[in-house]
Amino acid sequence: MTVHWRSFLATCLATGLWLCAPGPLPAQQSGGSKTATYVGSAACKDCHAKEYDSFSRYSKKAHSSESVKIMAKKLTSEELAGCFACHTTGYGRPGGFVSFEKTPELANAGCEVCHGPGAAHVDSGGDPALIRAKLAMSDCEACHNAERVRSFNFKPMLFAGAH
Known about the structure:
Elements: H1 5-15, H2 49-58, H3 64-72, H4 77-87, H5 111-115, H6 119-123, H7 137-140, H8 146-152
């Protein structure tokens, strides 16, 4: 049975599923009281050039805002919020995506969707303890879950051409 995307979004909104993000988000970064914030994928490219290039070229996530922009005029603000939860970086979280105008650097589902907010990692010069480096399928399931596979007809893949 195919589930229509509007009914799926209604379920997400009713259950609060749109507030989910991959893996736990610490309330505070290690070594201080700074709240975890997002910096955008461009902040990753100097140290992770190969991964950034591959992600930018081959991952649909790197261009996910284009799909949202196409659909936005047909959606209610609640439905749009459901889209932003998986198709942008950090939506609904401190320092995360707010709007295409205010936070264009977070408009796509970038590196930090999977690896967590990167401000402390970047500020530290790349301390690996301040970013989620090793990923598991459970980190992907907030967005790539069975319900979305049925609703949107995509495969839940751990690497999915990310890098």
